[in-house]
């Protein structure tokens, strides 16, 4: 390895010239400036009509000199006036983040540190401009990007750094860019500049072994599909050209581009129309799911979209008469969305936008699709997909698609109940306030109610019916009938899966309404509720819907009863009636984490939502009826823990209890489960999750993750980083950066799109947080920021930072369940010592460590007593990853395959023959 010997002091700031284009270059520009380097000039491409390149726009807004260069060379020689323009900025280093022009060596070698360039492949493999496409075409299972020192070859210069990622079977150019090449590439470019500045940037000669140069896929003849290949090779070719220019084929004699390929494992569709494809022996099949194609190996792939005669269309419509377009009738509020959309289109296309303006016909590319989707999400808080843009390319069509997306399930059949109707968050919402038992909304015995309070202003939203033990018994009896005698117990696992998928789809349609209800009832920030509270709930239902018909037992070899033989096998069976009791911090998500696995396993449910946040559970019950879930399968009984919760835990017909809440209540629940009928239980309880930050980590990343670990969902998060241990060498810098960023947190109305921190859930909890901070300060902790209720209506508590926290203090041992960062210092690199401190708690829910030392990280993961370990990240949960704690944080798992076992019993069967 050759280390750049540039003779500069470590950390010196450089004069950087950026040569490139696109949003990628614009983001690199921002990050380099943020790191303190001086960008002396941005050299980019000329305007495309009225469309200025994003790199030029961002630089111009900062007052950075911008040079729009049509060409750098003429007949292979640098154009003198362009060269002089470049030299005038006096750069120390050229950075080429996304550059499609040929840059002369007079420019490449001019700065004292020369030039670094980004390339989207693992050089020396896939040199050339179509590298990502060839990565997919050749079926690579791994890809990544390279930052290299530019030389006079094509992508042949010495390597500075590389980053890798896996290629999934259905990845496309766009998906690889969006999930890895784009975000990680931006960060890596900025890192590379810092390495050059520090004198630590290597220059590794590219090996010749494995080197390849792949041609640019610009010629039409290179984009035709070769059909005499296995289905996997055809699939790889189509997805490699999915973004641009598209894989060409002749269907019924006309040129058609194919998009949205996936390998097909299902049976032949019963209803399909044949289409002749030149070069393909078997005809294509146009069916409800797209266009089915067969490779030379007899296996098949499915294409979802076609580009025909300049228009994108669903593949399942090919060869059929065009559907008559019916204009969408819009409400006045929906019509107000159109000027906003027109502004977004105008900003991207840089032209006047009429109703018939075509997005792609006006020059938009794949990165513009990403920008369009992101801007729609930012302005309207719901997410479109790439396919929505491809299939609605004119402005009027796209506007209607956005309006329809915003409506949710307005055409669904109504369920009868006494509704609460409100106009809030610029929408009309409607939700139940009664108990939900045996498929009906009914009043509680005696008509007792609970006030549902909006924590943003402490106003009463509505009065919710309060379940009695008698109501709980009725719900359990209904669930028992549904399990023993009802349709639910008779239907196949696949039919059960279909209903759960339908339920998830309805939740998706009502996503905005659910998020709004979550915001006003629990104080969740609306944008977070969309993504996490509701978004992850939908993901959970879809994940477990897929498990319904995949729950299997096993065969076990045992000793035979000679001369006879024996067969032993196990069956996984549902338990029966299950009780669920969920907390108030993620009302809908906690319901979903438990109930989705419970129903996928075939059980029936009686569920008590948190007394202070029951409304999304009741709206969910309404959607379950619309989805076709049979009566009695789901029962929702709002009420107090001492009455309704205890009645569920002690009921003799409830055979399993899933509980999330405090350790103190968990102990009572466990005792009640034992005393009633020794019912199975799983408990997800309190936490005091340690996060350890070593001085060799990426400190900015650690700061961001630590803040998310503490302040996410205003600290009302079971795996919140309850205590942060920071190595003394970076402690002060860490605290300084945390306070600096905490001051930027926007606190306010959870329905305001700019808000990132809403009110605490209820008054008693806020008062507890104030007392918690006061006790910490009294015991010797230093209050560095926050620590008080804000002087405004509502239950707003200022994000808080406490330092100088010693191990004996109350705040070092007990959970706050609020936005309070507890920072303790540790010395040296003694991993065992800091783990001993981290483990000196009865909680064991989650943990985290930030370090670049993989050995240290793995040792931490092995020795820490926690059910979840995060390394160089935090709060990264996924529906497929099991979640649960150790020690007094409880036992049992939510999420992932393991969660199914919480709601299944194993029966062993032995027969003799």
From TrEMBL:
NADP(+) binds at residues 608-611, 661-662, 768, 815-817. (6R)-10-formyltetrahydrofolate binds at residues 101-103, 155. The active site is at residues 119, 684, 718. The record marks 155 as: Essential for catalytic activity. Keywords: NADP, One-carbon metabolism, Oxidoreductase, Phosphopantetheine, Phosphoprotein. The keyword NADP applies. The keyword Oxidoreductase applies. Belongs to the aldehyde dehydrogenase family. In the C-terminal section; belongs to the aldehyde dehydrogenase family. ALDH1L subfamily. This is 10-formyltetrahydrofolate dehydrogenase. It comes from Frankliniella occidentalis (Western flower thrips). The lineage of its organism: Eukaryota, Metazoa, Ecdysozoa, Arthropoda, Hexapoda. The gene is LOC113209527.
């Amino acid at each position: 390895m050759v280390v750049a010997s540039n003779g500069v002091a470590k950390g010196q700031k450089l004069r950087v010239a950026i040569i490139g284009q696109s949003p990628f270059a614009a983001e690199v520009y921002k990050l380099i400036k943020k790191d303190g380097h001086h960008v002396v000039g941005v050299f980019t491409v000329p305007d495309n009509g009225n469309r200025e390149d994003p790199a030029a726009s961002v630089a111009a807004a900062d007052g950075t000199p911008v040079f729009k260069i049509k060409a750098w060379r003429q007949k292979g020689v640098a154009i003198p006036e362009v060269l002089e323009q470049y030299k005038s900025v006096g750069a120390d280093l050229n950075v080429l983040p996304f550059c499609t022009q040929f840059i002369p060596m007079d420019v490449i070698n001019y700065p004292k540190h020369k030039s670094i360039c980004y390339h989207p492949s693992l050089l020396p493999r896939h040199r050339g401009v179509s590298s990502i496409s060839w990565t997919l075409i050749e079926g690579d299972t791994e890809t990544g990007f390279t930052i290299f020192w530019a030389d006079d070859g094509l992508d042949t210069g010495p390597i500075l750094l590389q980053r890798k990622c896996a290629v999934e079977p259905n990845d496309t150019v766009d998906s690889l860019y969006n999930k890895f090449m784009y975000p990680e590439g931006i960060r890596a470019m900025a890192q590379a500049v810092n390495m050059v500045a520090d004198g630590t940037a290597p220059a590794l000669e590219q090996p010749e072994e494995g080197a390849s140069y792949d041609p640019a896929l610009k010629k039409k003849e290179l984009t035709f599909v070769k059909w005499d290949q296995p289905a996997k090779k055809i699939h790889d070719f189509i997805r490699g050209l999915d973004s641009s220019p598209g894989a060409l084929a002749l269907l019924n004699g006309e040129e058609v581009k194919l998009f949205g390929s996936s390998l097909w494992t299902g049976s032949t569709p019963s209803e399909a129309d044949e289409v002749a494809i030149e070069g393909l022996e078997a005809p294509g099949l146009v069916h409800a799911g797209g266009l089915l194609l067969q490779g030379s190996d007899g296996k098949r792939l499915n294409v979802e979209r076609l580009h025909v005669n300049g228009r994108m269309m669903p593949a399942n419509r090919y060869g059929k008469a065009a559907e008559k377009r019916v204009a969408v009738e819009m409400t006045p509020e929906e019509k107000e969305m159109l000027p906003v959309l027109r502004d977004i289109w105008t900003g991207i296309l840089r032209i006047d936008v009429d109703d018939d303006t075509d997005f792609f016909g006006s020059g938009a590319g794949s990165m513009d699709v990403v920008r369009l989707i992101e801007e729609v999400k930012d302005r309207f808080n719901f997410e479109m997909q790439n396919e929505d843009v491809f299939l609605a390319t004119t402005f009027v069509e796209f506007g209607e698609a956005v309006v329809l997306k915003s409506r949710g399930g307005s055409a669904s059949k109504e369920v009868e109940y006494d509704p609460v109707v409100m106009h809030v968050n610029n929408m009309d919402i409607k939700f139940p306030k009664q108990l939900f038992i045996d498929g009906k909304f009914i009043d509680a015995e005696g008509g007792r109610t609970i006030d549902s309070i909006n924590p943003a202003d402490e106003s009463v939203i509505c009065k919710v019916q309060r379940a009695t033990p008698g109501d709980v018994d009725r719900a359990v009896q209904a669930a028992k009938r549904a399990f023993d005698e009802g349709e639910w117990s008779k239907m196949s696992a696949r039919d059960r899966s279909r209903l759960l998928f339908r339920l998830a789809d309805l939740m998706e349609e009502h996503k905005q309404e659910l998020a709004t209800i979550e915001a006003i009832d629990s104080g969740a920030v609306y944008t977070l509720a969309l993504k996490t509270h509701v978004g992850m709930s939908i993901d959970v239902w879809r994940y477990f819907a897929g498990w319904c018909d995949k729950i299997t037992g096993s065969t076990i070899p045992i000793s035979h009863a000679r001369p006879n033989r024996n067969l032993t096998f196990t069956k996984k069976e549902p338990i029966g009636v299950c009780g669920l009791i969920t907390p108030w911090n993620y009302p809908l998500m906690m319901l979903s984490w438990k109930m989705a696995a419970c129903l996928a396993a075939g059980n029936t449910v009686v569920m008590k939502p948190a007394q202070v946040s029951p409304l999304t559970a009741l709206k969910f019950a309404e959607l379950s009826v619309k989805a076709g879930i049979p009566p009695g399968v789901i029962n929702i009984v709002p009420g107090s823990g001492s009455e309704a919760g205890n009645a569920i835990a002690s009921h003799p017909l409830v055979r399993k209890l899933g509980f999330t809440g405090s350790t103190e209540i968990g102990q009572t629940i466990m005792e009640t489960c034992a005393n009633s009928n020794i019912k199975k239980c799983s408990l997800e309880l309190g936490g005091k999750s340690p996060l350890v930050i070593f001085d060799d980590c990426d400190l900015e990343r650690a700061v961001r993750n630590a803040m998310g670990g503490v302040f996410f969902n205003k600290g009302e998060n079971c795996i919140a980083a309850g205590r942060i241990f920071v190595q003394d060498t970076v402690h002060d810098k860490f605290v300084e950066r945390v306070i600096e960023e905490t001051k930027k947190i926007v606190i306010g109305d959870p329905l305001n799109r700019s808000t990132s921190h809403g009110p605490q859930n209820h008054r008693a909890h806020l008062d507890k947080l104030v007392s918690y901070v006061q006790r910490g300060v009294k015991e010797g902790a230093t209050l560095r920021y926050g620590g008080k209720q804000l002087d405004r209506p509502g239950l707003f508590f200022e994000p808080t930072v406490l330092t100088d926290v010693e191990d004996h203090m109350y705040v070092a041992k007990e959970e706050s369940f609020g936005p309070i960062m507890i920072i303790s210092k540790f010395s040296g690199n003694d991993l065992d010592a800091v783990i001993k401190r981290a483990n000196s708690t009865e909680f064991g829910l989650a943990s985290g460590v930030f370090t670049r030392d993989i050995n240290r990280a793995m040792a931490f993961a092995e020795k820490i007593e926690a059910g979840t370990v995060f390394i160089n990240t935090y709060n990264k949960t996924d529906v497929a990853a099991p979640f649960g704690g150790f020690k007094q944080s409880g036992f049992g798992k939510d999420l992932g395959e393991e969660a199914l076992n919480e709601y299944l019993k194993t029966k062993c069967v032995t027969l003799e023959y």
